[in-house]
Amino acid sequence: MFRLMRTPKESDSEMNRQSPTPLLPYSPTPLLPFSPSPRPRVSASPRPRVPLSAFCLLLAAFCFLPASAKGQEVVDKMVATVNGGVQTDLITYSDLLWQLALQPTTPLANPSPEALNGALRLVEDQRLILQEAQKLPTISPTVEEIQRALTELVKQFPSRAELEQRMARVGLTSDKLNEILEQRVRIDKYLDFRFRSFIVITQKDIADYYRDVYAPRFKSRYPERIVKTLPEVHDEIEKTLTESKVESDIDDFLDTARERAEIVVLNPM
Question: Residue 120, Cβ neighbours under 10 Å: how many?
């Protein structure tokens, strides 16, 4: 899976402040039909005034709320908007934290401006690609593909429990995780269709890479070992060259997409 992602372990006490939410297999929820009901007519009456003492009591109570409860307003802060010519997508602070939570080695306690800006750049790129992918409805992910993506994500962590703990710390639910994975699979399928399927690596490309790059690098790293022959590493080199070309094409595509898009940062990190 192509990743648009480019981290010391926290203490057990810090990570266990919230009980993790177990991951559930992806299961789409059917939408119920909307049926508006008439609003009852209410006669106007004076709004009761809240005594100043009561307001002060509420303010004091808020000050003693746990950090996780008070942090909800910060998590939902608007950070940026992205319009690639299809629609305008909003990026919130929670979107950034969710991306960081899915990176196993990224600290979640007081994330640095560098980490947040990196996550912002990542989400911006994802939104630009998703807007382009909407033009190809035939690449919609299947339930099985999303489930495989979840399995691969869990493998990146020491345990499933650690992933769930990181999710709990940033308020990332199983349903939201499935939505993120669905977007990632859609991105991968679009990039495969748009770039990987059209790349051609010639036999000359492979032979040149073996002579100029693979063999010299192997001799430098393992001077006591015999260099593998070209037929032995043919498929490995072909894959390396393909992925390198895909990455280069995607970078060019994103540079062009950013030039055309309207990206507005509402709250700099």
Answer: 21
Highest CATH level, class, for 74-265: mainly alpha
Q: Report CA Rg, the chain.
A: 25
**Residue 235: Cβ-neighbour burial (10 angstroms; 0-12, 13-18, 19+):** exposed
Residues 6+ away with beta carbon under 8 Å from 88:
81, 82, 262
Residue pair 118/6 in contact (Cβ under 8 Å)? The answer is yes
In 38-138, beta strands by DSSP E: 78-83, 88-92
**Other CB atoms within 10 A of residue 244 CB:** 13
Give me 263's structure tokens.
């990206």
pLDDT tens for the chain, 269 residues: list them: 444 544 434 434 443 444 444 554 444 444 333 344 444 443 444 444 444 443 343 344 434 444 443 444 444 799 999 999 889 999 999 999 999 999 999 999 999 999 999 999 999 999 999 998 888 777 789 999 999 999 999 999 999 999 999 999 999 999 999 999 999 999 999 999 889 888 999 999 999 999 999 999 999 999 999 999 999 999 999 999 999 999 999 999 999 999 999 999 998 88
- Contact between residue 108 and residue 97 where contact means Cβ atoms under 8 Å apart: yes
Phi, psi of 206 (to 5 degrees): -70, -45
Q: Which residues pair with 89 in a beta bridge?
A: 82
Which residues neighbour 251 within 8 Å (Cβ) at sequence distance 6 or greater?
Answer: none
CA–CA separation, 111 and 97 (whole Å): 9
Q: Phi/psi of residue 102, each to 5°?
A: -90, 5
Q: Which two tokens stand for residue 36?
A: 């508006």
